[in-house]
Amino acid sequence: MTSGIRDANCPECLDSFQLGSLTVWISRPQQPRAEDYLRRPEVETPLAACLSRDEFGPPLAPLLVGPPGSGKTTLAQVVARRQERPFFRFQGNSSVTAEDFLCVGRIAPTGVEYVLQPVAAAMVLGALVLVDDIDKVDSKALSLFLPILDGATTIESTLLGGVVQVSPDFRLVFASNELESLPLFLRTRVVTFRVDYPDVGEVVRMAELHVPDTGASLTRAFLHAWKRRNGSNGSLAPREAVRIFQLAGKFGKTGQPVRGAVQAAMDAVLGSGAGGAERRG
Question: Are 176 and 240 part of one and the same domain?
Answer without folding.
Answer: no
